[in-house]
Task: inverse folding
């Protein structure tokens, strides 16, 4: 190695990437056909956050030495890191054609499968690496984590134990063991593992989140709240999932022990993260701020993006019945013979449960779904119910919509709006004459107001308020019934199912 190479390598090791790059570029310009200089330049660009330049240099290296795995591994990794799984997989498989046991390529394919929630395939790749090399810590910790996601908690414990033998100070292994023991109901062992992880890394927010779950399970609410608070403090504003977790912890504590117990934490949370609209909205809901008229759009998007992959399964466990109610009311009241071609709009369509239930009762139609969460729309596509899916805020869509619809449904969508006056006016405007609006609202059992912001961040409405809005919006009520909508904790959430028809003359208030 030349003196210049040694200097560049030292600078790279010190994370002085621009300085290292200057030397490597000069070496590359003097010897453009030397593979390693292209690789080194690519590494510097990658470390500096410029994947496109890194890819260009890795491809130059591959062209210089097509039989070398080094450039292919670099390409596979850089494409993976930029989220281009298609190209990452392509280069990983190209490596395996010549080097079938290459650990980097196998791990990369496992990681791609994991990111796609194909946990079985991911586990198979990780196991192949581990079987080839029992000293591979990365393979065994990935096996532990994947088994945890597959709910194979005993296996996760075993693999995490093996990881600790290879790397005794593995924070991840202790966290996986703690969470696995937690899921198995072995709370003392869970606490010991999580505290051991904290001894190694006391600023890791995920440790505190796991501890808050543990203390919540054993109903040690003071400890749960303190651990949750530490989680968001160490997470900062950027790790939004930690704030969502803390919001749910505060809500569940308020539901279990009363709102007074969480008021101090909600105020501290709001004041400490005053620039976060999501945090402020969740805190205001817990503090039952009566001035809030609608949910923060970014909060709603984040919630549904997070839960999209498991949303249908989660609702099934809550005995969610709104899609079936809307479908039955549609079957009983919607008269499709009035319309030559039925256009159906599913507002806040989510994963498509409502349209999937409703469509069989209206026959052939053109179906449009609108939702704020792109990840929910990705799940809705899989149901093959919609002719078009639009990623937009409901209010913004309605304000710019020029189409007329014969049927509009909104299942558990209005719960994210308090004041519904503008929404109903816009819905009425895009309904064709004799078109129908069929929807659900949660019942306000908290006070006598038109609507109430609950600690969960959802709004509940009074039936009389909905009837008043229908009337002034030119919608004639055809159906109204109080129904159990879903379970929430250990109680049933009741609400109303409405069906209204667009009338020609709008009665003024």
Result:
């Amino acid at each position: 190695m030349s003196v210049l190479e040694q200097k560049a390598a030292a600078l790279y090791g010190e994370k002085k990437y621009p300085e290292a790059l200057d030397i490597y570029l000069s070496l590359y310009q003097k010897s453009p056909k030397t593979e390693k200089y292209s690789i080194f330049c690519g590494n510097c660009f990658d470390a500096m956050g410029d994947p496109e330049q890194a890819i260009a240099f890795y491809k130059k290296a591959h062209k210089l030495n097509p039989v070398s795995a080094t450039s292919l591994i670099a390409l596979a990794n850089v494409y993976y890191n930029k989220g281009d799984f298609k190209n990452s997989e392509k280069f990983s498989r190209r490596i395996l054609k010549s080097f079938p046991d290459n650990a980097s390529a196998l791990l990369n394919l496992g990681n791609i499968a994991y990111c796609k929630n194909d946990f079985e395939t991911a586990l198979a790749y990780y196991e192949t690496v581990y079987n080839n090399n029992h000293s591979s810590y990365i393979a065994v910790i990935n096996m532990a984590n994947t088994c945890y996601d597959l709910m194979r908690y005993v296996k996760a414990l075993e693999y995490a134990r093996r990881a600790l033998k290879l790397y005794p100070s593995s924070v991840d292994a202790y966290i996986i063991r703690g969470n696995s023991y937690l899921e198995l109901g072995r709370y003392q062992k869970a606490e010991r593992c999580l505290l051991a992880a904290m001894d190694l890394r006391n600023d890791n927010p995920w440790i505190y989140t796991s501890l808050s779950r543990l203390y919540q399970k054993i109903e040690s609410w003071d400890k749960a709240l303190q651990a949750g608070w530490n989680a968001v403090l160490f997470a900062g504003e950027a790790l939004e999932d930690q704030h969502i977790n803390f919001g749910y912890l505060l809500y569940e504590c308020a539901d279990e022990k009363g709102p007074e117990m969480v008021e101090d934490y909600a105020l501290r949370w709001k004041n400490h993260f005053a620039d976060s609209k999501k945090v402020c909205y969740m805190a205001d809901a817990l503090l039952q701020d009566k001035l809030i008229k609608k949910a923060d759009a970014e909060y709603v998007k984040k919630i549904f993006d997070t839960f999209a992959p498991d949303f249908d399964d989660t609702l099934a466990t809550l005995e969610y019945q709104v899609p079936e109610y809307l479908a039955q009311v549609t079957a009983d009241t919607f008269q499709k013979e009035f319309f030559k071609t039925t256009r159906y709009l599913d507002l806040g369509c989510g994963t498509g449960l409502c349209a999937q239930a409703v469509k069989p009762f209206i026959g052939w139609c053109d179906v449009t779904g609108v939702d704020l969460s792109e990840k929910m729309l990705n799940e809705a596509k899989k149901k093959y119910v919609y002719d078009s899916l639009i990623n937009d805020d409901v209010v913004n869509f309605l304000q710019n919509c020029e189409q007329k619809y014969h049927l509009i449904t909104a299942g558990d969508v209005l719960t994210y709006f308090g004041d519904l006056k503008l929404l109903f006016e816009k819905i009425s405007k895009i309904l064709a004459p004799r078109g129908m609006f069929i929807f659900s609202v949660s019942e306000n059992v908290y006070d006598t107001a038109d609507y109430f912001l609950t600690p969960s961040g959802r709004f509940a409405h009074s039936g009389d308020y909905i009837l008043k809005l229908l009337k002034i919006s030119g919608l004639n009520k055809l159906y109204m019934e109080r129904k159990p909508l879903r379970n929430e904790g250990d109680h049933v959430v009741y609400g109303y199912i409405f069906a209204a028809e667009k009338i020609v003359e709008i009665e003024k208030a």
